[in-house]
Amino acid sequence: MQRNKGLKETEPILEQRLLKLLVRLLIVILLLNPVIVFLDTGSLIASILCPTFVLALMFVLNKKRSLSRLNVLLFNIVVIVSFFLHAEAILNCRYSEYIIEDIYRISRKYYFNKPYLDKTFRDKEFIVQYKTNKQGFRISAEDDPETTVNKADWLFIGDSYTQGAQVQYEDLFTSKLYDSFSNKIIVNAGISGFGIADEYYYFINEGRKLRPEKVFLQICNFNDFMNVKEKSSGFSDYLMHYSNFARLVLYNFKYANPAELPLGRWTEPFYPDVKSNRDYNIFYTEQSEQKIRDLKNFEHYLSKLNKAVKDIGAELIVFQIPTKEQIYYKYFEEVVTAFKLDIEKLDMKYPNTFLKNLCDGNEITYIDLLDDFLTAEGELFYQFDEHLNVPGHVQVANSISKYLLVEEDCQRPTLLSRLNVGDRYPNIAINSHGTLTYQSFRDGNFELFLSDTLLLNIERLTWNNIDEAHPYISPDGNLIAFTEGDQAGLKTKVALMQANGNGRKYITTQENTFGAIPAFNHTGTKIAYAEWQFDADGKLSNPRIVIFDLLQGEKHVITSDSFEHWRPVFSPDGKKLYFIAKENNNQFDIYEYSLDEGVRRNITNTPYDEWDPAISPDGKTLVYAAQKNNNWDLFLHDLQLNQCKQLTDSQGDEWDPAFSPDGISLYYAGTFGLRNGIFKLTLN
After folding, report:
1. In 479-573, where does DSSP find H-type helix?
2. Is the predicted pLDDT of residue 445 greater than 60, yes or no?
3. 424: part of which helix (H) or strand (E)?
4. Cis peptide bond upstream of 568, omega within 30
5. What per-residue confidence (pLDDT) applies to 25?
6. Which pLDDT band, with edges at 50, 70 and 90, does 2 fall under?
7. Of 388, 476, 473, which Cα lies nearest the Cα of 427?
8. What's the CA gap between 475 and 429, in Å, rounded?
9. Which positions ≥6 away from 354 have C-beta within 8 Å?
10. Domain limit, last residue, from 47, 66, 98
11. Among the three residues 47, 69, 98, which one is the final residue of a domain in this structure?
12. What's the helix, strand, coil split of the chain in %, to 5?
């Protein structure tokens, strides 16, 4: 009887414990809702594991009364975490318009653009689209974010003046430099808030991997000489980086609103109090220990960056952008009057003198933009924003170009393409008034275009979801032959249409017979192209060269299909064909074939591929692209002297050459890092 009584007494205790446990479980589940976790993280695994872990921990601690305090502490932590998770979910799902965008990823001792950004920045003075590729480099609106750059001729490092988030990508001074140096791979690695310490750590961790020939360091007198120190990201930085709610709460504590500043705009390095000017104002002649320390640190990191650049065989070039107060008296007068500054204590050329002396002492090339800015017409900065406007970026590009054009006295091509959309295969009608055709990537596939030779008056010829490529215009400019269909699947047709895009018909009409890359002869009566077949088992034959007679409607086979033949072009007199062939599974060489005699001659015999042959109007010179040193460049081959000359030698890829009707110029396509398009080069 006594034993049964004990059992009855323990039942209420068990019930109480079970009830407490259930209450705690319910509270934890409500606080750490899996749905909320999923909304915040986007991870199904996290939404399952996180609540499960907390519940398991609560079970363990509930069994150990000695850990009751820890149990309470854990419960409080869960409450706090849950509050933030719910606030984050509510902000993201219900009040997304209040989210402050975070466009940076945090790296050790610096930060950089996040990949795949596509944001619109609005201010009372500008509206800008800000887009980045998978590496975090800024690109234009029409660029493919999957396109990457793995090498550079020139690398630009700087703060927000180089980043240029106040202007469109096309208006950046680094983009404007392509007007004069279109055959350079130019990379813009400017990031708002970068100081020389950040710039040094970015270069040694990421920038030097691009192996640039020149590294341009942008310095601005606005704030580059103050708070010079190595940055380290704290807990609040990471919290703001990963949480929209935390960023909303903490942003105004860490960053001032321009509307709340004394003059309604950023006025660094000028301050309304003497102490701040002594500490941070580079123009203020009085120097505190803080300013002296900053200037010494600046010299230290400049020296380290210079050494790191030289270690990879590159050259460091420093260019210095002035402030608004150095250029325009109205802004100078505004800060002097509002902040009651003593003009006698200001030296408005000191930072320029200081930096020049540092560069001279370290044997660093130095470009001072002060004089160019002083003599420029119009305002180069926004009125309220402290950054460069579009004319300001143009002026920086012009000033840097002026220096580089003297240093690099060589022939440069002209970039004709206005958009960065993969324009390729330019071809000009020989007997017409400068009619040019080319292909371009639009609406998810390749389309054909007609233009003048400067690509100013452009007409789109095709509008569909089928690839049209390799256009070749007839000598009179009335017809266009081209490749239609899926190139990757090798199921393409050779098509013909009028130069206005109408009247399409096909040259390759036989079943399981395909073709590509056609070319007219110089009378416009014949078309040569590569042709191949799929047999009943789906086996693919090697491409062979055929000629189709447009007048007779007959096809003539020129080569066998024992190995690959591609890209035929006629000689001006119509007696020869030039094409590429790949014998014995080696590289592609260029061959000359006599149509009268049936004799084939190997024009090139190198250990690398040649491609894209084109013949000059007089029939004396062959131009082609070759992949020498794993890079595509253009070569000229004198057919009479049997001599070859390399025409381009860049880090970019040049291909698809075509002569102008007078033989004076070459048109070709090129890709230089994130830039691409059609170029024109005048031959010597």
Report:
1. none
2. yes
3. strand 424-428
4. no
5. 58
6. very low
7. 473
8. 5
9. 225, 282, 295
10. 98
11. 98
12. 35, 30, 40
106 forms bridges with which residues in the sheet?
111
Confidence of residue 605 (pLDDT cuts 50, 70, 90): confident
Domain that holds residue 205: 104-407
Look up residue 389 and give its amino acid: N
Among residues 206, 214, 212, 218, which one has the least CA distance to residue 135?
206
Average of pLDDT values for 276-305?
97
Give residue 136's Cα distance to chain centre.
8
Given this model, what pLDDT does residue 30 score? 56
How far is residue 421 from each of residues 22, 132, 424, 427, measured CA to CA in Å? 62, 16, 9, 17
Specify the pLDDT at position 507: 96
Q: Is residue 7 part of a domain?
A: no
| 213 and 72 co-located in one domain | no
Q: How far apart are CA 406 and CA 554, in angstroms?
A: 58
Does residue 1 lie within any of the structural domains?
no
pLDDT in the model for residue 142: 85
Q: Is 622 helix (H, G, I), strand (E, B) or coil?
A: strand
The whole-model pTM stands at 0.84
Asked if 68 and 196 sit in the same domain, the reply is: no
The CATH number of whichever domain residue 272 belongs to comes to 3.40.50.1110
For residue 346, give the amino acid letter.
L
Q: For the chain, what is the largest distance between any 2 Cα atoms, rounded to a whole number of angstroms?
A: 123
Helix (H) or strand (E) holding 27: helix 2-31
Q: Closest by alpha carbon to 462, among 449, 452, 480, 444? A: 449
Tell whether 368 is covered by a domain: yes
Structure tokens at 612: 């894209």
Torsion of CA 81, 86, 92, 96, to 10 degrees: -110
The answer to whether residue 473 scores a pLDDT higher than 60 is yes
- Token pair listed for 553: 């409607």
